[in-house]
Queue: 2 jobs
Job 1
Amino acid sequence: MTTSTRSHKVQKVLERMGKKLNRQMFGSLVACVHCGMCTEACHYVLANPDDPTYAPAYKADRIRKFFRRHYDGLNLGRFFPWWVKARSLYTDEELEELKDIVFGKCTNCRRCSVNCPMGVDYATFNRMARGLLVSVGIMPEGVAHVSKDQWEIGNQMGVLKEDYLETLEWMSEELQDELGDPNAAIPIDKKNVEIMYTINPREVKYDPRSIADAAKIFYAAQESWMMPSEGWDMTNFGLFSGDDDLGGAVARRVYEKAVELGVKKIVMSECGHGYRSTRCEGPNWAKTDVAVEMESSVLTMLRYVKEGRIKVDKTRNTESYTFHDSCNNARSCGLFEEPRELLNLVVSDFREMYPNRAENFCCTGGGGAMSMSEYTPERLKSGKIKAEQLKATGADTVVTSCHNCVDGLTDLIKHYELGIKVTQLVTLVANALVIEKKEPASKE
Amino acid sequence: MAIAELGGKQIEIDEDGFIQDPNAWDEEVAKSLAGTEGVAELTEDHWKVVNYLREYYLEFNMAPMIRKLCKTTGFKLKEIYDLFPSGPAKGACKVAGLPKPTGCV
């Protein structure tokens, strides 16, 4: 490709694209027949019916046109660009425009992907396009900030090790007080245990109640568990920024700690993108096999109830509840039935939201959107459909197994004045726990 | 970026309503911001939280851990949420004139 009329950044983006075109990407880039199914599927389109630039096929074509010019295989775009609407990229301004599309007009929720009859996974190549831009330093400020913290400090909120440990100690003390048992502490770096519990830094930085709730459940189940002093952040901005190297480095920290401490299983707290990144995508990004089992805490808690390891009293959760599927948990990782099964075990009044499971609409906070303030007005507007869905359930509280969704939904509920509360399964399970008084003399 | 009228002044805010220049903050601005976060009146307890957050931010250029906030002010975690229904990150930090916290919040 000639370089004379192209900016250096554009040149780098085009070169890098060639290295990112795996079969899935290539198929998605060539297969679109512009049938319009994706248009109906996208929450941005549904909230902006008069603006065609939100249509997934339209957004995808902004990427396709330079793919066709350089990489379509048949060289049609190279020799007959007018025929296949191929056009190369030339200027940094064009890259900035692309940034506003791939970061600002799509949350990578994959609802269009599952509704495409041709199998085009737009969200996945939208992520690839993000990665191309990030490789030349073009990204929203929030993404840059968080990525830097994850590279340098090892977690997405720049939490220092001593602060993390002090917070766990604090939660241990609260729990010991509440349960009247000095053994109710959170074990740190304990070797050869069953479970290493990993979290979202948001929990330790701003709201550690969910850590205390989880600890209480592990305590009640008499689980052999611990939290690691490092490698505890299972979130991964590599998923949002499209930077596979960052994704691999972050995931590897978790895997390596688990192996070092000889644990059997990594359990991840309720975080959709963290679950997908660590369990589903991380081994590919890190180019490594992971010999440790990985599980969402939703499954762990469900197992405890079903196996009788914990007792729950559903009458303690007295409100009406609906469930919001996180895109990453549900659409991308197939976690549909387990959260509902668990929810029905800990509440009496569950009301399904429609559509749901793989067809659920994004909370609008997906794809790292919560950290990109510049697009917040468009994001809130795109939440119209979700707000209507929520309202139609008539529930007092919406339950979700994702921290991003907690914040995305909280924003929508405030913006659309819905007056609905947001919570997670761990909180409801902890609240329903029936803990019997400890036997005064234990055998060991 | 947009301009909002807060505490009788024209102040630049981001798309999530957080003020951009910490120097533009004063008590009147805090009162206006509190209104947007479901806090009708800033009591002495609110000010204790807000003042600590602001002092910490001006010194370290970041929001403190919730642990530090509770330890220094003496409030329980639950009490912080009672004071600021939208939580320490989006509620209390906003009222104290801090920028929007980064990451999944």
Note: Chain A has three domains: 3-139, 149-306, 314-432.
Job 2
Amino acid sequence: MRLDVIPQERSGAVLTPVGRLTLTTAHELRQAVDDLVGSGRTRLVVDLSQVELIDSSGVGALVGGLRSARSGGGDLRLASASPQVVTVLRLTNLDRLLRMHDDPATAFSDD
Amino acid sequence: MHSGHVVRAASAQEWFDTLPDAFARLWAQVPGVPADDRWAMELAVTEIAGNLLRHSADPGAVTVRAELSANAHEVRAVLEDTAPGVELDLDRPMPGPEAESGRGLALVRACANVVEHRAGPAGTRWVLTRTAEGRDPEG
């Protein structure tokens, strides 16, 4: 997996995992979220458009990342999930916890 | 009739890492499998391989033999490893949305409509089947 991180304005960032978000890679996403929150960037969007497969570890990393972002006073939102990713998020009830958006650019536009 | 292939791995890590190639090879052998069935079976096997990697006392000493096969209506995986087996509660429900772990087996159950698990002192055998007729409504 590759992870692209693009800072947005003063307090945000878009994280784009590319490839498989699974047991052996999920910790990279989790660590990147913690690093961003630690540096004051707490309004985070995870762009899931390039994720080929997400497993329970990937789901756990999203939950942990959400907790981290909220503890820093921000939020973590999901954007551009593929049908496979959306199905896994529904099966794991994550769609009740994390807001899904069509476009990373507008994930915080309703604030 | 199914087509497929056998994969052997010399450690739990090698088994986990070989999954993308092993499934790409299967889908090339059996081109008619619907996309939902492809990713669902790949996810179910990834969860089991992940459990083996995380929970084995000695992941480097575990060997795995897997038969992956499919036709247009069914995908099947027979997984055998040499890690001493443990009894699992396959009926454990999906944890709540705020849990950071514990979803693996529930996802296996959701993705494969027949799950057989046999654990013994010499190893564990899983048989996973996903059929077009038995698909989860979400999948």
Note: Chain B has three helices and five strands.
